[in-house]
Every structure is written in structure tokens, then in C-alpha cells.
Design brief:
The protein contains twelve helices and 18 strands. The protein is an alpha/beta fold and 375 residues long. The strands form four sheets. Strands 1, 2, 5, 6, 15, 16, 17 and 18 form an eight-stranded mixed β-sheet that branches. The protein has a six-stranded mixed β-sheet with strand order 8-9-11-12-14-13. Helix 2 runs parallel beside helix 3, helix 8 packs across helix 10 and helix 11 packs across helix 12. The longest helix is centred in the last third of the chain and has 24 residues.
């Protein structure tokens, strides 16, 4: 018995027609199609909303939705269950979430991780796979996806609740899989916080934890008998392309009487399609994974990543700077320096304080929401 789990999957305008026609040979190629057709259970993260009546979403970054007709390609591939707890499920507004839930149900595809309000989100499902009870649990980090009493959204990570639910779920199944949507984009290692979260979920009973959202293949770790994957990468999701996002992993779990075996399959983006990587070269992946146990190394790598991303945040906090777009284009080395040095030390200290302090963070978030007339 085997389970196939793919990373981020969502159509883009250039392949809407192919998805609507169910042309999976064009979209995925023979080898990937065979991998899915031979599996007993197929799962993916559906990275957006399926709707024919999208509403404006107040957010930054890509707005991801597609017409409901594209479900034909998802179904034809053999997807049995879609994880919906992600940062793009609310991109087409509340109606987009409702339409996504409806079209999946109409096509007989199970879903979890999102709901019509905070009290109706299905967080877990149990499947019978060859006589084995396989539990799926789906949760995301908080982004633009928070539900409300009367507002659709995704199931968001609350460690106390999540770990309690995993403990209960583990008592009902033979294999417990967590699909976690979070982590740092285009970063191949876990942050210290992400790694702690994964360890706690594993301690609570999760046998397999897969991190999506990072849009790149990351690294893996075995922890007390559990398999932890920090970054599955894209399956077929071409929102932006670079050296990180062109490669993804399909994870195959082979179930046996003595547990499970993890088989990994590298896939590559080719235009608006995805193909099985004939090389299956895990050299760099294995090298990264060998360093996971070195906490000092992980902390150093994350510090480097954060310092590299800092100008993006400071630019937004500072507001409009005259001529910055021109400087960024023609003088990229000056760009980061200008973003950093326009702040006084006390301004940076207060920014740090407002992010660290729960009370200040709550006040700032609510104030910005009211200013933007959100919620």
C-alpha cells in the first residue's frame, strides 16, 4: 500500500485550458501520472481558490485563484484529498473559499484545513488504506487566511490545540501525517521555531510531517522515529520562477506491517508543466539534511537569511522613499544600504519592540486593519 503526497499545486492562466480539459499527460507527463495512478491514496496542497466569482482581496503578493472548471485536471490526476490550509485559500474572498469547498465536494474529492467559519473547519481526516488507518492533519501559519465567526478561512497553528488534537488522532490511526503550510519562502532549512514545532508535533504522535509553502526543496530529519521534511517545494505552481522554485518533491509513503518507508521523487518545472526528474540527484539535499542536527549551524544560516531579508521589511516600515525604484534598478548594492541607514537607532529599536511585544503587535495589527478597513 502506498500514499503519494504532492506539494503546492495550482493552475495558472497559461494552463487553465489544459486543466479544464483534464489533459494530464500534457501537464504532468507519463511517469508522474503513473506514480499517481498506482497509489492507494493521493494528496496535494491546493494552493488557491477555485471560483467563477472572485472578490477583491486586500493583501500584498500574488492573488491566486482559478475557474472551477480546472478541477477536471486535479480529479483526472487521481487526487483523493486536497489540503486547503494555506496562505492563498482566501485570495478570492469569502466566496472563493465556499466555492472551493463546494466544487471539491461535488467532484468527490475530500478536503481539509479550511471551512466556512472558524467553528466548521475540518482539521483532520482518517482514510482506510489497505486495512491501515491513515490520519491526515492540515494546519497553516497565520497570514491572510484567518477565519472568523462568520468568515471563511484556514485552520491556523495553535500549539496547545494542535498537539492535543494530534495526541487524540494518533489513538485512532496507524499512521498520522501532518501537512504543515509555513516556513520561510525560498529558504532550504528550518528556522529554530519551525524545528521546535515539528519536534513537538512529533512528540504528540505525528509520524510524518511535511512542510509546504517554502517553494523550494529543503532538508529532512528523522526524529524519534518520525519523518520530518522541511520544504517539499512546488509540485505545479508557477507564481514565480527561479533556481529554488523550479524543483519539487513528491513524497511516497510505502506502508508495511513494520511501519512505513519514505520514497522521494524529484520533479522539475518545464514551462507551465511539470516532469519527472530523470536524474534523481539528491546530493545537495542529503548534504543539507546532514547538518540539521547542528543547532549552531541552523541558527547561523537563519541569521544570514534574516539579515538578507531585512531591507524588504524596513522599506515597508519606512514608507515611500523618493527615487528608491531607480536606485534599486541601477545601484542594487546601494539599495540595501539606503533602506537600512535611513533609520535612527531608536526607530529600529521601537520596530523590534513592536514586533516582540504581544500587546504592541496586537494593537498594531488591529490599527492597520481598521485603517485599511479590513475585518
Amino acid at each position: 500500500m502506498n500514499i503519494v503526497i504532492a506539494g503546492d499545486l495550482f493552475p495558472v492562466p497559461s494552463n487553465f485550458d489544459r486543466f479544464s480539459e483534464g489533459d494530464i499527460k500534457y501537464l504532468f507527463g507519463d511517469k508522474i501520472c503513473a506514480l499517481f495512478s498506482e497509489a492507494d491514496l493521493c494528496v496535494c496542497n491546493l494552493e488557491g481558490a477555485l471560483t467563477n466569482r472572485p472578490a477583491n482581496s486586500v493583501k500584498t503578493g500574488p492573488v491566486v485563484f482559478a475557474p472551477t472548471s480546472v478541477i477536471n485536471g486535479v480529479k483526472r490526476l487521481g487526487i483523493d484529498c486536497c489540503a486547503l490550509a494555506n496562505n492563498h485559500i482566501t485570495d478570492a474572498g469569502p466566496q472563493g473559499v465556499l466555492d472551493t469547498l463546494d466544487v471539491l465536494a461535488e467532484e468527490g474529492i475530500a478536503s481539509l484545513g479550511a471551512g466556512k467559519d472558524e467553528n466548521s473547519i475540518k482539521r483532520s481526516l482518517i482514510f482506510d488504506v489497505g486495512g491501515k488507518k491513515v490520519g491526515l492533519y492540515n494546519v497553516a501559519e497565520t497570514m491572510y487566511n484567518a477565519p472568523g465567526e462568520n468568515r471563511p478561512g484556514a485552520w491556523l497553528y495553535d500549539e496547545l490545540i494542535v498537539c492535543r488534537e494530534l495526541e487524540s488522532l494518533k489513538n485512532q490511526c496507524d499512521l498520522l501525517i501532518v501537512i504543515y503550510h509555513g516556513g520561510s519562502e525560498k529558504y532550504r532549512y528550518p528556522s529554530p521555531q519551525t524545528r521546535r514545532r515539528f519536534h513537538r508535533m512529533a512528540d504528540a504522535g505525528a509520524d510524518v510531517i511535511l512542510s509546504q509553502h517554502t517553494h523550494c526543496v529543503g532538508s529532512e530529519e528523522y526524529y524519534n522515529g518520525s519523518y520530518l521534511l522541511y520544504g517539499q517545494g512546488n509540485f505545479l505552481f508557477r507564481s514565480f520562477n527561479n533556481e529554488f522554485t523550479d524543483t519539487g518533491l513528491i513524497v511516497e509513503l510505502v506502508l508495511g506491517d513494520d511501519g512505513f518507508e519514505v520514497r522521494k521523487h524529484l520533479v522539475d518545472a518545464v514551462g507551465d508543466t511539470v516532469r519527472y526528474d530523470e536524474r534523481q540527484d539528491f546530493t545537495s539535499f542529503d548534504e543539507r539534511s546532514s547538518k540539521i542536527a547542528d543547532e549552531d549551524f541552523l541558527a547561523q544560516k537563519f541569521d544570514e537569511y534574516c539579515l538578507g531579508e531585512l531591507p524588504v521589511y524596513l522599506k515597508a516600515y519606512k514608507g515611500k522613499i523618493l527615487g528608491l525604484k531607480v536606485i534599486r534598478r541601477f545601484f542594487p548594492k546601494w539599495y540595501k544600504r539606503i533602506c537600512m541607514e535611513r533609520y535612527e537607532r531608536n526607530q529600529i529599536l521601537f520596530t523590534l519592540h513592536s514586533l516582540r511585544s504581544e500587546q504592541n503587535r496586537e494593537v498594531a495589527i488591529r490599527g492597520l486593519e481598521k485603517y485599511l478597513k479590513i475585518n
